Amino acid sequence: MADSLYLFVGLGNPGDQYVHTRHNVGFMMLDALAAEQGAEVNRSKMQGRYCRLRLHGAQAILLEPQTYMNRSGECVRRFVDYFNIPLSRVLVLHDDLDLGCGRIKAVARGGAGGHNGIKSLVQHLGSADIARLKIGISHPRGVDGQGRQPVERYVLSPFSPEQRQQIEERLPLVQEAIRLFIQEGIGPCMNGINGRGAG
């Protein structure tokens, strides 16, 4: 673990119009993690915005692909190849509609589940064995409790103030997940994180 290089990928869309949207919760978490360390995700390379720092005794890159969500894998593949990072040291943070808002779930692998960013990662990395930290954004609900906002519009809409607070309150758990991932691996990370706090 000492001096090993880890890659933490936040998924989202570039551009000011997407900054506070639900689909950009991966970017939001990485920005908050960097700020906690007195850093900023503001360097540009290979179609990504990134920073390098030390986390829990290891070297880490925080990466926000700037290729738009459905092409995220292109940027991530470049970073994996350029820095020679094994997939076992890659953790992807992304939104998940099937989890209540603010719920955090670590997984070792799996299909895309309709998430275009994950679909692109699997395609370009050639494997579904990619550790992920899912951040719940909940399903869209109609105002009258009957109709539902289309998913595409919902994920590209800003969080409500209440949801934003729920997400921000989960930052310590995300930090703990990253510590466990670095120090012990994805298995202990799953055991230590999943089920803590329902959303």
Outline the structure in words.
- This protein has 199 residues and is an alpha/beta fold.
- The protein has a single domain (5-193), classed as Rossmann fold (3-Layer(aba) Sandwich), CATH 3.40.50.1470.
- The chain is built from 7 helices and 7 strands, in the order E-H-E-E-E-H-E-E-H-E-H-H-H-H.
- It has helices at residues 25-36, 72-82, 116-125, 151-155, 161-168, 171-183, 186-193; strands at residues 5-10, 43-45, 48-55, 58-65, 90-96, 104-107, 131-136.
- A 7-stranded mixed sheet has the order 2-3-4-1-5-7-6.
- Strand 2 and strand 3 form a beta hairpin.
- Helix 2 runs parallel beside helix 3 and helix 6 packs antiparallel against helix 7.
- The longest helix has 13 residues, at 171-183.
- The radius of gyration is 16 Å and the shape is globular.
- It starts with a strand and ends in a 6-residue tail after the last helix.
- The mean pLDDT is 90.
- Rounded Rg: 16 Å
Distance between the termini: 32 Å
Query: Beta-strand level of the residues, as a percent range?
Result: 15-25%
Q: Biggest sheet: strands side by side, in what order? A: 2-3-4-1-5-7-6
